[in-house]
Structure prediction request, 708 residues.
Amino acid sequence: MQITIDGKKCDASQGETILDVARRGGIEIPTLCFQEDLKPYGSCFICAVEVEGAPRLVPSCATPVADGMVVHTDSERVRASRKVCMELLLSDHVGDCRGPCQVECPAGIDIPGFISLLAEGDEALSIRLIKETMPFPASLGRVCPRPCEEQCTRLCQDEAVSICFLKRYVADVDLETDTPYVPEVASPTGKRVAIVGAGPAGLSAAFYLRKEGHEVVVFDAHAEPGGMLRWGIPAYRLPREVLAAEIDVIRRMGVDIRCGEKLGEDITLGGLAKDYDAVFMAIGAQSSQSMRVQGEGAALPGIDFLERVARGERVDTGGRVVIVGGGNTAIDASRTAVRLGAKEVTILYRRTREEMPADDLEVDAALAEGVKIHFLAAPIAMEKSGGEVSLTCIRMELGEPDASGRRRPKPIDGSEFKIEATSVIAAIGQGVDADCLDDSSEIRLTKWNTLDVDPETFETSRLGVFAGGDCSTGADIAVRAIAAGRKAAASIGQHLIGEPVTGDSMGYLHRIAEEPEGLPDAIRQKVADNPGERVPMPELPPKKRVRGWDEVEKGYDRDGALEEAARCVSCGCRTYESCKLRKYALEFGAEPERFAGSRREIFVDDSHPTIRYEAHKCIMCGSCVRVCSEVKELDALGFVRRGFSATMKPAMEKPWKQSSCDSCMKCVPMCPTGAISIRVTPAGEARGSFAGVDASKDVTETDEDTQP
Prediction:
């Protein structure tokens, strides 16, 4: 026989299905419940196709061919049907594709994965996993404001896992070895990339581009690389030798870092675009914003102050220092002024502590070191006379929220007051200095004077030129700049080999709850079953730390790190990479909340020595039941109950361990959603994709083949 599929003539034989013929002809039709070794089931209807002359869509896995049949596998009607089918399946699917902490981490670090490896005592493998998405774990383990911890599942019961400190511990252990981990570099591609800016975004991009085998040259105007990590963060938070060691790893990979090369003077964008196959702009945001008050020239910009101190200059602030601002730069400046010998350091902030953008832990540290904060106050004029600066300030009150979501401060008429200071430091924000770009650069700027880029691909208005980090977002936290560098590297890599530039995204992510407070009782119980208080970070006492530049946070020892790692409840799905449900949800643009209603209760069967069953992830495709019955003839598994309460469980609803299961593991690769997965390996908890499991083998608890 001969049939036509999507306009292609295909030979067919009696007894074949549409799916059989399509696959032989290289035409992909998505499937969830179909398994080659089993009889067609047709339960998911994802493989539905349109047959000319048929009144409705048919499942391609179960529909036999007929001579002259004309089939459409990707029509608008077919895609709409698949989208609805996916949404129905997702409406009853309960699970997190990725741990909430990993989703919230701008860099996308596999947090449950690296903590699991650490908990097993494998620091060496843990650092390798971290560096898949984060080239500066020792530095960021010290200075990151920890957005990941704000989504930690443990917050539904107690305190978040100390993710940041654990990352630092693993990285410090690696750097202290004689042979710190240096990623393997792929074979040379013959492509050259220029990066302008040796800050977190630029160096991150260099790390991942070099890893793929591209030649990378980084240009920076400063005397040393590191950007704001080097020049904007004081040594008591980030020791210089730690940052230098992480940058040295990038140099050892073969990245050429050239300092003292300023864009617009020593190098030009036009010249780089001519000499290199791609250019990544990572020039940061190092221009201080104006306070727009009379006499503000009497104030020293905060980032200039911190940079001068970082260069080792002697900066005399005098005894009374006033810092204007409420961000991390203001806090860093205040704590630095204390270390320079100022007797009285005051921060003026026009809102309250609740609206303060600085990290709470840093604010607490400043207060412990004697810094005072004057809330709801702002300068309106300043005058310098001799060695003193006189500030005229006004008290504020909070009005309605502004665009940032914070309540807008409003001056209170007649509330002016005076403050006398020996130095004033302005730390109210940073902007991008785009003067290094002229009209010939062909780079479009936004109304905020940042580089205009595609948020997904980091492409600029000039072909082959990409940009990311603070120069495109405005001043932001370092972890987002690092994430931008890695993601931009993916786009640049696509550009270099001539692929469509689509960027790098996590794609579809299913969530149990948007916030820890919304987690169901079963998850709360899981946390309660794994009790343990957060391990405190050892610190220098305030009276001792203000006398010099020694690092304040001393880091976990191994016992503390392992104790804290044990608090992690390992959120996320073990089969994230191979999950068909996630793949097709993304492909068909499914909306998981479209169909409302009750969802499955969370149920985990960990009774079996090698298999874990998570019933809440099951989509009732029947593959596991059928392989157990039709191939193994064991009938260890079956469907219990009827209607919406139906589920897959071992016979008589007994624990899996008490079933007739012989641990053949054939059901594991059959499961399209990870509802059935490998529970343990000889080293402990299983991780990663299970696509590599050989389902033809009998596997026992001690067999190395249990490792994914």
Observations:
- Residues 97 and 398 are 41 Å apart (CA to CA).
- The chain has five domains: 2-74, 100-181+509-565, 192-286+432-496, 290-428, 592-706.
